[in-house]
């Protein structure tokens, strides 16, 4: 396999920049008209009061009025404080928060797309995935309703996945800890830590960094205004009961007059989809069920991945470039995690009694990039995005169709899509192989290929190919033995290029002076030269 350049595809950057600008302009058009708000009702009700309190009473005033997502509001504290210092108006402060969220999501999408450079992922597939992820209608609806922190949390979670796949546990942990400020990323947090396997030290560093970051954003609300944290942890017992979730038919039918009324009519719903009245047990069950299902699926995936990596983990010690994972392996691991997390987040939507259309945003973004890194056009995400845009956008099918019909249609595609992403993610995890890589510039082929070395007279041993043929019971020692045998056979061949590592000619050593037993010496898995 010939590795591609690691440089960023300029067209990807252009896609993200243009999509972000269009998204921001479209959202701002919905909010501003002559300096007055015409939308963003949740922002007006939930974030504007603490921002105004910050101007009058400082940090304590801001924290004392935080909404039911205090962690995410604390992540937004710095830009809000900057807006206050600059004396920005309310619309300008809104623009700052929205622009920051769009930028974080766009940068995370670009960072994830870089994983495709040097892998077998199709360049056109990655470009299409980036465009779909960066310009998702779900992101637009999140801004329109007044939740820029949804884009911010999605970007932070995506960044945590990329950092973990690239074996950067501290960065991954910090991004994950900040992302869970909105609560829902905790449902899909386990696969992020699972990407740090099989090294327990890396996992411990990631968990510690995530815990510290989460404490930083949650401790002020806990000490100054614990009520906001209590709202977040009430597990859905507030009576919110929206269409588009599996518990809908256990509730009372919504009155058609509620959704047909004029906004100024007392009692008219301001939400962009009908609500019913659900049984108390549905609210008590919904969020714990989501957390339990997501955690269980994440643990099973991590255990499956750990078993595979442990069986072949010793082969990584034979790398000559000091890397534990090649670019191809990093992309494959990230794709597996993203697709499993997308499946979990689809389940979060149809199991949540609070479900609203923009809840699909993280599932769409992570799913698109997971499909692209797998090497295929993100067809599932394109279909889901089209369905969401046409039939699940606020003001469309959600309020024009019978709620029972709407819910049945919503479940008819979100459940299969979620299952499909989970199946694909688990299949990818089972196929991961860690094999020796090559130092850039040495000309030694990546293991598993038949490419010739720099001197043009021999091929690298097919260690990865041998490992892929092993059965499910292969142990680490057996995997190392397979690698040793492959290297020894290559060394004994008259066409063998010499030991794995820099070319003898480049190092100034006469390759004819190297006996075969010296060539095959470092095969016990403990040496890298």
Layout of secondary structure:
Elements: H1 10-31, E1 32-33, E2 36-37, H2 41-46, H3 48-64, H4 70-75, H5 77-85, H6 90-114, H7 123-134, H8 137-145, H9 148-165, H10 169-179, H11 190-194, H12 200-224, H13 226-232, H14 256-260, H15 280-312, H16 327-351, H17 361-374, H18 379-391, H19 397-400, H20 403-430, H21 463-468, H22 476-492, H23 504-507, H24 516-519
Helix pairs in contact: 1-6, 1-7, 1-8, 5-6, 6-7, 6-9, 7-17, 9-10, 9-16, 9-17, 10-12, 12-13, 15-16, 15-20, 16-17, 16-20, 17-18
In short:
The protein is an all-alpha fold. It is globular and about 55 Å long.
Task: Please provide a written account of the structure.
The protein has helices at 10-31, 41-46, 48-64, 70-75, 77-85, 90-114, 123-134, 137-145, 148-165, 169-179, 190-194, 200-224, 226-232, 256-260, 280-312, 327-351, 361-374, 379-391, 397-400, 403-430, 463-468, 476-492, 504-507, 516-519, and strands at residues 32-33, 36-37. By secondary structure, the protein is mainly α. The longest helix is centred in the middle third of the chain and has 33 residues, at 280-312. It is 61% helix and 1% strand. β1 (32-33) and β2 (36-37) form a beta hairpin. It has a two-stranded antiparallel sheet. It has 24 helices and two strands.
């Amino acid at each position: 396999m010939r590795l591609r350049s690691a440089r960023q595809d300029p067209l990807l950057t252009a896609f993200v920049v243009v999509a972000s600008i269009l998204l921001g302009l479209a959202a701002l058009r919905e909010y501003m008209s002559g300096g007055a708000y015409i939308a963003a009702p949740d922002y007006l009700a939930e974030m504007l009061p603490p921002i105004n309190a910050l101007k009058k009473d400082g940090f304590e005033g801001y924290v004392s009025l935080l909404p039911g997502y205090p962690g995410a509001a604390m992540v937004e504290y710095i830009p809000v404080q900057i807006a206050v210092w600059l004396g920005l108006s309310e619309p300008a402060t809104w623009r700052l928060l929205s622009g920051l969220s769009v930028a974080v999501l766009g940068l995370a999408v670009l960072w994830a797309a870089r994983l495709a450079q040097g892998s077998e992922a199709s360049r056109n597939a990655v470009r299409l995935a980036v465009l779909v992820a960066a310009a998702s209608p779900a992101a637009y609806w999140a801004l329109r309703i007044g939740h820029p922190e949804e884009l911010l949390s999605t970007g932070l979670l995506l960044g945590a996945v990329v950092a973990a796949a690239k074996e950067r546990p501290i960065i991954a942990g910090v991004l994950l800890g900040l992302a869970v400020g909105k609560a829902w990323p905790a449902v899909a947090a386990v696969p992020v830590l699972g990407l740090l396997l099989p090294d327990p030290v890396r996992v411990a560093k990631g968990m510690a960094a995530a815990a510290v970051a989460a404490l930083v954003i949650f401790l002020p609300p806990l000490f100054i205004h614990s009520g906001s944290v209590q709202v977040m942890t009430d597990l859905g017992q507030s009576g919110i009961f929206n269409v588009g979730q599996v518990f809908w038919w256990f509730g009372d039918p919504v009155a058609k007059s509620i959704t047909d009324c004029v906004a100024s009519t007392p009692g008219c719903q301001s939400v962009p989809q009908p609500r019913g009245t659900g049984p108390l047990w549905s609210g008590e069950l919904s969020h714990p069920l989501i957390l339990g299902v997501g955690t269980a699926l994440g643990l099973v995936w991590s255990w499956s991945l750990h078993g595979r990596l442990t069986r072949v983990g010793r082969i990584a010690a034979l790398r000559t470039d000091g890397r534990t994972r090649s670019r191809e392996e990093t992309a494959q691991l990230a794709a597996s995690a993203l697709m499993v997390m997308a499946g979990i987040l689809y389940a979060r939507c149809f199991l949540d009694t609070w479900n609203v259309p923009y809840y699909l945003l993280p599932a769409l973004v992570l799913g698109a990039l997971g499909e692209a890194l797998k090497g295929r056009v993100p067809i599932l995400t394109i279909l889901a995005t089209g369905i969401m845009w046409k039939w699940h956008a606020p003001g469309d099918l959600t309020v024009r169709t019978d709620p029972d019909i709407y819910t049945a249609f919503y479940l008819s595609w979100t459940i299969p899509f979620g299952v499909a992403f989970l199946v694909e993610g688990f299949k990818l995890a089972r196929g991961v192989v860690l094999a020796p890589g090559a130092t850039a510039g040495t000309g030694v082929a990546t293991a598993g290929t038949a490419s010739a070395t720099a001197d043009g007279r021999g091929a690298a041993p097919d260690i990865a190919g041998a490992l892929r043929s092993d059965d499910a019971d292969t142990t680490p020692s057996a995997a190392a033995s397979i690698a040793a045998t492959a290297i020894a056979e290559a060394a004994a061949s008259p066409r063998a290029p010499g030991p794995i590592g820099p070319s003898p000619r480049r190092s100034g050593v006469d390759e004819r002076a190297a006996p075969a037993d010296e060539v095959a010496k470092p095969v016990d898995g403990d040496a890298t030269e």
